[in-house]
Amino acid sequence: MDEPTVEHPEDLLLGRIAVERGLITETQLEETFREQTTAGCQSGRTVLPPLLGDLLIAKGWIQKEDLQKLLREQIRRFQSLDPLSDSVEADLQIGQILVRRHQATQNQVNKCLEIQLDLADSGRAPVPLLGELLVRHGYVSETNVREALQAQRKPLPPPDGDAAG
């Protein structure tokens, strides 16, 4: 089964934190990502998909208080990456490109993002870039990363099944 793409890159981290804390399962996270992607394409036109936290609440899997705690932790983790802030957005884009091309799964990208956060939290510098970690763990090839870096300089293509225009 294909891994879903995530339209809101910050949802990658939020979802990982929710799974880490035992609020949801990996299966629930993947189901919600798929629903999020499907909701982003209605009546043949692309619309802004709902945020992950909103979907998790709507499904009854978490409460508003849980979402507030998850968002605080997400902010804390992003702030811990502050020295890397220039590369964080680029890494999120690379991850999305690799997932859209079916060269990495969403779970593989999420796991490597989590490794980055753990390394940053521990004060290790420099923290490896997402592409480096994906290659190091054998999830993608160096060629895949180079091609994704080239594609990053261009607009992201629409998700599978979307037609331009």
Architecture blueprint of SSEs:
Blueprint: H1 10-20, H2 26-39, E1 41-42, E2 45-46, H3 52-58, H4 64-80, H5 85-100, H6 106-121, H7 130-136, H8 142-152
Antiparallel strand pairs: 1-2
Structure description:
This protein is mainly alpha-helical and 165 residues long. The chain folds into two domains: 1-80, no CATH class; 84-156. Helices cover 60% and strands 2% of the residues. Strands 1-2 form a two-stranded antiparallel ribbon. Helix 1 packs across helix 4 (64-80) and helix 5 (85-100) crosses helix 8 (142-152). The two termini are 28 Å apart.
Summary of the model, kept short:
With 165 residues, the chain is mostly helical. It has eight helices and two strands, in the order ααββαααααα. A two-stranded antiparallel sheet has the order 1-2.
Query: What separation lies between the terminal Cα atoms?
Result: 28 Å
**How confident is the prediction overall: mean pLDDT?**
79
Instruction: State the shape.
Output: globular
SSE order, one letter for each helix or strand: HHEEHHHHHH
- Cα gyration radius (Å): 16 Å
Class derived from helix and strand content: mainly alpha
Describe the main β-sheet briefly.
Answer: 2 strands, antiparallel
List segments where confidence is low: pLDDT < 50 over at least 5 consecutive residues: 161-165
How many structural domains does the protein architecture include? 2
H/I helix tally: 8
Q: How many strand elements?
A: 2
Q: Bin the helical content.
A: 55-70%
| Subunit arrangement of the protein | single chain
| Spatial strand sequence of the major β-sheet | 1-2
Q: Estimate what percentage of residues fall within beta strands.
A: under 5%
